[in-house]
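cache lookup: miss for this entity combination. No prior model stored, computing from scratch. Input as submitted by user K.M.:
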Amino acid sequence: MPTLIDTEDRLRNTLSRVASSVHENDGEPHTGGTLAESAIVPSSDLSSRGPRRRHPARVFAAAFVSVLAVGVIAVLSTGLPSDPTVDSTRALVAGGQVPSTAVSQPVSPETSGGGELQVEYPALTLEASGWSMTEILDHESESGRSVRVHFEEVAEDSPGRDLLLVLGIDSTAVSNHLQEFELAMGLKSEREVETRGRAAVLYEFGDETLALSWSEGAGIEALLVVAHGGDAELLVELGDALVPVSSEVWREMVAAFPPR
Amino acid sequence: MANEERDLTSDVLRGRISDELFDALYRTERVALVRLALLVTGSRAAAEDVVQESFLRLRSTSTELTDPPRYLRRIVLNEARQLLRRREVERRHLPVGLEVVLPPEFDEMWKLLGELPEKRRVALVLRYYEDLPYTEIARLMDCREATARSLVHRGLKNLRRRLNANPD
């Protein structure tokens, strides 16, 4: 059974061995003229690459938020129990790294037919996450409460940390729209866990994990986590998935599902 | 311009790589960059393309450069990582063998390395092939130092676990 040091040594040897398979003058496209000229010969493969694609995790997240948002509006407008108070709006963002004071403009229950709630994330979070929460549209109706959240990418290749979005929605709605989403995206969850009335579905894209969790009953919280990269200080290992623990809700999840 | 006294550095600082500097970089850096790209992408052909593309980008850059080789290396890494990400989803469903054939004692590690998530793989290559400190790995990968450490640690742990699973 190799130790970590053995593994390091084997890795070094392998990398060195592979690298040495590339020799000087191997495959140089130099066919006369200056190297500057020869290096500019376009490769057929390069020219056939086509437009740069967005990372699947981001496509996933963007599509998921869209589906979820539409679903939330549709489902909640049909009569789910609600508590249209400012407190519940604060709860909407309190699960993440956003302090309650980040809600710059409370939504009053009297707001009818729609109202706009601007939520400002701390600049650091915005910059680090690569995403920008530009608005939360929160409006009351006779039958319930709906929440719409709009995200925009700040920069496609910006280094990411975590983006946490906690939506106060019904677990059935989550479940339904999760299936709808999986169907639309042709995806299947990597791992589904459920215990103590709390469930989570984890999707992994390489080193990035999207996790959706919800609890049954009155808790009605859903947590969408977009984790970019690995941060030793914030992440714990849940099986092979990297999940952030910066949210109280998520800490509960981790407690419920200890690392394997 | 013709009468202007020129040196390589001044050309770079004006945001235009001179032919002399470009040629010099090509001669001195190309092989090392292909090796690096090969370790990241697992494909010799892809590595050649990545390096080719990187030199093209260097040629057309208007950025003021103080350290062209370092800049070039960063471009190569970014290009290689983008290529790897594009392949990631396909690879999950249809594993593709790495192109370099090695003796058995090296082959298993190479294969396992190819199965790692992109970030961990890149971090391991930078750490154990390039021998870079974590601060530099973090800079090249646009992440925090703690993240770089975490990626290396997790990558190594993954490899070890998989080696344990296949003790041959």
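stored under new cache key. The first strand of chain A starts at residue 116 and ends at 117.
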